[in-house]
Design brief:
The chain is an alpha+beta fold and 671 residues long. It is 32% helix and 27% strand. It is built from 25 helices and 29 strands. Helix 2 packs across helix 3.
Length: 671
């Protein structure tokens, strides 16, 4: 070997040595056994301690092949210690087959008495859940043989697995029950003092025990007998279809791995009746509450369409054929009108989603509830607690008369679920306030649909949809309609139907001034449909307007739509001025054309303006902002002077070229 190759050889050997050292330092210590590793790994000391104290678990892990699901120490800090933890927890975290993550099926059998299953949810190769706990992927698949040569595998998880436990001093033992046996023996189980006798009795009377005994993996929502502050349901209303709506077949839905608001078909999803279930959560103080909704999208004479929501009062109870969640009330049963829904379900609970809404109703006189009762079919868009707690609207809430008038902006005199809005392509609907409409937009993301709406200048999102009542539907929204909380620039940025105008305003810097709260703006904003019409009528002009190099041309066109004054003008202001002028033209002091004149027409379809001998519909009038008013129109105010001979847009580059040529000629002749 040449002398020049020796340093290279030593360098390569050095790299291999470094890699070997790194592998030793940064992999779990290669101990003589898995139990030895647990004993030396500080962050797994809690699970090691309870295994060591449990004779069965300790013997199993020393003698047999196992997979251990090991919660780290932080996981133990999240649970309340119980006297029988050493009896239940060690063996429920062990299974007697060594399995790496890729070998895990839908469930594995634990070593706890009766061998109750541990359920596996694989959302991706690196996102795997064991019951409710998530596998820490970087700390999984640790393999080692024990002293008897038996292969063992360890996976670190982020929560402590909780098996079903017996009550202390229970006279009867129940080993690994299915959902039916769970209900039958509920009196012997540790269920935090909840009872399920009413639902059990109906299941027995209607001979439905078979659906709770089915083999496989399913989800069971079992109503408890009674929960404080929740209305009690008459038992006879729990019929066969209602029972079926409490079961999601072939899906084991623990709360952790289940996508919020994803809909799953229930056993009540048939040709004639279609009922989904979905899970949701809400942060309330330092706690998170979980809910299940049954959404009847196709009903019948007994089961109306709409959603019924129940709180999950005890979650993630593993059983032999799936998982059980105890819930606060039966699903699918609609037995309150809209008024009763607000009163009975929410008024006595400060943590309820509509507690503040109820307060504002009562503060404004309470007659709003009577109005809701008198309407045979009504849709209520009810603002959430967070909506009323928004600091920017507190001064408005002091005006009780004003708030009472705004409440009517939140009701529609017909029943409208999100499915109705989508199926009928409804984008506008009249409210109980004359000349004040709601404007809808449905956003679809995969299987999920979100309804956004605008009313009185405020954009809101439906955060809980399709809540059913006997005389209507309730949607909970995240803003109070009619109380402006956004400046003009923020309104443009958040309204999904004004994206094009907002974009041009941003690239041309026109929007920079629209956040000034010391000024008052009146802005005739073309909606996206108006820009699409321009794209159809004059595609070359449309295309160039959206090129960055023509941003100042776009700004000039937008300035024709904008008035800056010491006050903002409603369409009624313009109408009154037109009336004073014997219905002749009204001068709009817009930024670009100081002497621009339009005519105003007021009809049952709403307002229209006439400009350049064309009537243009005002799609939404009087969209109030904190520093102005927006009127959404159906056409861009662009005239022949803008596009004449391919317009300023088309001639801009030519004009620039002519200017450069002229400068060259001057330079040539005078130098």
């Amino acid at each position: 070997m040449s002398s020049s190759q020796q340093p290279r050889r030593r360098f390569v050997i050095g790299l291999f040595l470094i890699a070997a050292v790194v592998q030793v330092l940064y992999r779990p210590a290669q101990c003589s056994s898995l139990i030895k590793y647990l004993s030396t790994e500080y962050n797994l000391s809690n699970i090691y301690s309870i295994i060591e104290r449990n004779q069965i678990a300790n013997t199993t892990i020393h003698l047999r092949s196992v997979t251990v699901f090991a919660p780290h120490n932080e996981a133990f800090l999240k649970i309340t210690k119980q006297d029988n933890d050493d009896e239940y927890l060690p063996c429920y975290h062990i299974t007697n087959v060594p399995m790496k993550l890729e070998q895990l099926g839908k469930s594995v059998f634990s070593e706890l008495d009766g061998n109750p299953p541990i359920w596996i949810t694989k959302k991706s190769p690196e996102e795997i859940y064991v019951n409710q706990a998530k596998v820490v992927y970087s700390l999984a698949n640790y393999e080692h043989n024990n002293t008897f040569g038996k292969p063992q595998v360890l996976h670190v998880i982020d929560q402590v697995l909780q098996p079903l436990r017996m009550k202390k001093n229970s006279p009867q033992n129940v080993y690994n029950p299915n959902a039916w046996e769970f209900m039958q023996n509920a009196e012997y189980l540790d269920l935090d003092s909840y009872h399920t006798n009413t639902f059990l009795q109906r299941v027995q009377n209607l001979d439905k025990k078979g659906v709770f005994s089915n083999q496989g993996g399913h989800t069971f929502f079992i109503p408890v007998d009674e929960v404080a502050n929740y209305p009690k349901v008459k038992p006879e209303k729990i019929d066969v279809k209602v029972i079926d709506a409490h079961i999601v077949p072939d899906n084991v839905l623990f709360l952790g791995p289940t996508n919020e608001d994803e809909q799953f078909k229930t056993l009540a999803f048939t040709d004639m009746l279609k009922v989904f279930s979905s899970l949701s959560k809400a942060a309330e103080g330092d706690k998170t509450k979980y809910y299940v909704s049954s959404d009847t999208v196709v009903g019948d004479d007994v089961h109306p369409t709409g959603a019924v929501v129940a709180e999950i009062v005890k979650a993630n109870i593993p059983v032999r054929n799936g998982v059980v969640h105890l819930i606060s009330r039966p699903l699918m049963i609609v037995d309150n009108n809209v008024k009763q829904f607000i009163e009975q379900s929410y008024k006595d609970r400060e943590d309820s989603a509509l507690h503040r809404f109820y307060e504002e109703i009562m503060n404004s006189g309470g007659d709003f509830l009577e109005k809701l009762t008198a309407m045979p079919n009504v849709t209520l868009f009810a603002p959430s607690n967070a909506a009323f707690n928004d600091q920017s609207i507190q001064s408005y809430l002091l005006n009780r008369t004003y708030i009472r008038s705004l409440l009517d902006l939140h009701i529609v005199n017909r029943r409208l679920s999100i499915d109705d809005i989508v199926a009928e392509s409804i984008d506008t609907v009249q409210t109980e306030v004359p000349r004040k409409d709601l404007f809808f937009n449905v956003v679809t993301n995969g299987k999920n649909r979100t309804l956004t709406l605008e009313g009185g200048g405020v954009n809101a999102t439906v955060v809980q949809a399709n809540l059913a009542a006997t005389n209507g539907i309730i949607h909970i929204i995240d803003h109070v309609l009619g109380i402006p909380s956004s400046t003009v620039d923020r309104k443009l940025a958040t309204d999904p139907t004004l994206n094009e105008t907002n974009y041009l305003g941003q690239v041309s810097s026109l929007n920079d001034q629209l956040g000034d709260v010391q000024k008052r703006f009146t802005y005739f904003v073309p909606r996206d449909l108006a820009w699409r019409r321009l794209a159809t009528d004059n595609p070359s002009v449309y295309k160039k307007l959206f090129m960055p190099e023509y941003s100042q041309v776009a700004r000039a066109i937008l300035e024709r739509h904008l008035i800056i004054a010491d006050k903002a003008f409603t369409m009624d202001d313009f109408r009154k001025e037109a009336n004073n002028n014997n219905n002749l033209s009204v001068r709009l002091p817009v930024v670009r054309d100081v002497s621009m004149y339009v005519k105003i027409k007021d009809s049952v379809e709403g307002y229209s303006i006439e400009w350049r001998d064309e009537w243009i519909h005002v799609h939404r009038s009087d969209v109030r902002c904190t520093n102005g008013i927006i009127h959404v129109i159906d056409k861009v105010l662009i005239d022949q002077n803008d596009i004449d001979g391919s317009g300023a847009i088309a001639t801009k580059s030519i004009s620039a070229l002519v200017l450069v040529m002229a400068q060259c000629l001057v330079f040539y002749y005078f130098n």
